[in-house]
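dumping this here before i forget
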Amino acid sequence: MTIRTNRHLVSALALSMFVAAHSSTLSAQARIPSEVRAKLELLTDDQIAFLGTDQPLRVIPSREKLYQDLERRTPEQVEQYVSDMIEAVEAHAFRPGIDMANIPLNPEASRFNGFKVVQPEILKERLRDPGPVNVHRYINQWAGIPTFAGAPVAVTPEDLIAGNVEVAIAGIPQSMSSGSRDGRNAPNVLRAMHVTGNLDVYAMVDPGAVLNIVDYGDIAVDRMSLERGLDHVYDMVLQMANTGAVPFLVGGDHSLMYPNVKAVQAADPDQSLTVVHFGANYNAERTRAHTISDRDAVYRLVSEGVIDGSDLIQVGLRGSQATRESFEWLRDNDVRYHTMASVEANGWQEVMEQIVEEASDAGNPLYLSLDVSVLDPTEMVAAGRAVPGGLTIREVTPLLRRLCAENEVAGLELMDFAPMLDLSYVSAMNANYMLNACLTGIAMRKQGITEENYLDPTTVDHGQN
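structure:
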């Protein structure tokens, strides 16, 4: 075998970045098993330091696999292996003058901002006083114009204020980021499906009767550019939250979590939020080329200080993007996570009680981020990034009802629903069922029903004994 020892290995700048992640070659060697260190005799100090960083994991699936590959090679083969690996890592990086760093746009376009221009009142055919508008003809509406929870429609902040709206449900038809995309159709599919705003038999509370709910229409996005649309989403969600209504946001891919949480937090900057994130994927990847996507929304919120890691609770994690290093990052940032491995080891009831306790201990208002992938694909076929082995609707809804009844709720989002993946009604029904569970909890709290794990006695026991 020929060893290409004169081959360009890595630029001085790139190597300095590798080495900067660790204090010395000795600390890097300490991370490497002794049986592997014996194979490193031909490597330079910089190459050994590189092995001690996380950089090799860009091309090797795990550190265990890396050490296995090194151990089974001769020192000469190890030298070539590390040389090629460094070159592959360097090839991942941005190349000034070669790679595109900015998306080219046409600022001369006459409709450059056309997607987010709000219609002025004076241009509307019929001027009206502010307040929600009922668009239904019949008292018992089973057809006609579909709205979230069968609720009246509001389109301006003045409508929300005049109507003393408590919950405003808005769609965000975003269909980008990773996974299977059909988020643009999610809001209208869920509007057309029943279940939301109906009587919850477990608590015998009807949120549609107790709460003042409106459909706030859809928030516009730029369907050609995720980056251009998120600022407008932020502005609109902040506008909703500033009226005192609780925003319920239906998407859309999980990149929306970033502007949504940021806006709700900005509406009350002196009050911390506790974010409870349900989903299969941890969404805190740190090395992606796109800085805005579903896969790094959590990372941005924590790293930018929008929320503190200790104010984040994650539920249902099991996606393969989360490596051991990923969980170490979550731990280092004080994030409390509850994986499906934890459910398997401890049982759902114990895990659920721990989540409820963690959510209430901080005393903060809650923001619930529901990625539909938290459910097992057998009950949520229409998840954009589905992963087998998830929770059931029977497990998730009691938790949602409790969280929303036993704590103040500042906002909620339901993300990553891709209706084209499910030709039946099951996914849409279960998505709306989760929304209704939280609406029920908010209605219970309004009625003063805040005792732990409340269930109506008439539904628990037939009373015939």
